[in-house]
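Trying the structure run again after the queue cleared.
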Amino acid sequence: MIRSELVKKLEGENPELKTEEVERIVDIFFSQIVQRLADGGRVELRGFGAFSTRERKPRVGRNPRTGESVQVPAKKVPYFKPGKEVRERLNG
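Done. Tokens:
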């Protein structure tokens, strides 16, 4: 599902809301998750899962075109851990 499909689904289930209002709600929802992760926090949605960040250590990578060694700096990456209900639903 892409963002526009999510907006249409929410719109269909909430006919009293305008498209612009639904889009704003979706924007706020995702921007709050991203902001919390950027601040080093964690976002837990009960029954769905938890978003957090993980640290990746610096490493030596390779340029696929030239084969040259390249230093890849340390960085944070987003991580999602599904909740129990999601895992059970996926695995029957």
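Helices lie at 3-13, 19-38, 84-90. Worth checking whether this holds up in the mutant runs.
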